[in-house]
Amino acid sequence: MQIRISLPVAQGSPPSVYSCAQDGYDQLESGCYISYLMITFPNTDSDTRIGSALTITWIWADHPDLAHAIAIRQQVFQQEQGVDAALELDGLDHTAQHVLAWVAGTAVGTARIRPLDHQTIKLERFAVIPAYRGRGIALQMMTQILQRLDRTGVETVMLHAQSYVQNLYRKFDFEPIGLPFEEAGIPHLKMQRRSPQTSRMEGNMQQTGAIRSGHASLCLTV
C-alpha cells in the first residue's frame, strides 16, 4: 500500500526535487510550499499469529485500534516513565504505521513505524505493558517488524533506544551511533540497523574497493 506523507512547510522558493527525501511539492495559498513523500508500506490486511497466544497486527492511524496503541503508550511512557504527554503525543501518528501485539484479545504491546525517506524507517514508541513483560513479546514484535521491512526493501531502520534496553536491539544487529543523550529526561542511545541485503552489497563493494573508507548510511537525525 502506498500513502502520501506531508513534510514540514518551506518558506520562499519551492524545494528542489533532487533528493530522495521528497517526491514533489504543493504550493499553498500563503505562498509557502509543502513537500511530500509517497511511501510504500506493508499491507495491513495480513495479521501474524505466533503460536496459539500472540497475534501481531499492523494498522493505520485512522483505525479504531489506534486507541489501544495510545493507551499502551500512555501507561508505559507517561504514567510509568513520567514522559510529558506533549512530547509523547507528538502529532506524528498520522504519518506512520502502527503495530499492536495481542494476547487473548488484549492489546499488550505497540510500536510506531515512521518513514524518514524512501529507504529509512524510524522505529518509535516501542512498548510492552508491565504485566506482559518477560514473555518474549518484544522479541517477537521486533522479529516480525524487521522481517516485513526487509521484504519491502527498506535499507535502514533507526531508533532512539532507552539505554537500559539497548541490548535488546543489539540482538537484531542494531549498532550505536554517537554518544548517549537525554530525551524526555531519559538516557538514550541512537542506533541503526542496515538490512541484510544492503549490508551484503556494501560488504561486496568494500571488497572490490568501491567503498574505500567509512560506512555508507542513509540515516537522518530527527
Distinct helical segment count: 5
Fraction of residues in H or I helices: 10-25%
Spatial shape: globular
What is the number of beta strands?
Answer: 12
**Mean pLDDT value:** 77
Q: Summarize the biggest pleated sheet.
A: 9 strands, mixed
Strand content: 35-45%
Low-confidence stretches: 1-23, 31-41, 211-222
Structural class: alpha+beta
Order of helices and strands: EEEEEHHEEEHEHEEEH
Radius of gyration: 18 Å
Write structural notes for this entry.
By secondary structure, the chain is of the alpha+beta class. Helices cover 23% and strands 36% of the residues. It has helices at residues 66-80, 85-88, 137-151, 166-170, 196-207; strands at residues 2-10, 24-27, 33-40, 48-50, 54-60, 97-103, 106-117, 120-128, 156-162, 175-176, 181-183, 186-194. The strands form 2 sheets. Strands 4, 5, 6, 7, 8, 9, 10, 11 and 12 form a 9-stranded mixed beta sheet that branches. Strands 1-3-2 form a 3-stranded antiparallel beta sheet, with no helix packed on it. A hairpin with a 2-residue loop joins strand 6 (97-103) and strand 7 (106-117).
Short description:
It is built from 5 helices and 12 strands. It is α+β, with helices and mostly antiparallel strands.
Topology (SSEs and partners):
Elements lengths: L1 E9 L13 E4 L5 E8 L7 E3 L3 E7 L5 H15 L4 H4 L8 E7 L2 E12 L2 E9 L8 H15 L4 E7 L3 H5 L4 E2 L4 E3 L2 E9 L1 H12 L15
Parallel strand pairs: 8-9
Antiparallel strand pairs: 1-3, 2-3, 4-5, 5-6, 6-7, 7-8, 9-12, 10-12, 11-12
Feature tags:
36% strand, alpha+beta, disordered C terminus, 222 residues, nine-stranded mixed β-sheet, 23% helix, three-stranded antiparallel β-sheet
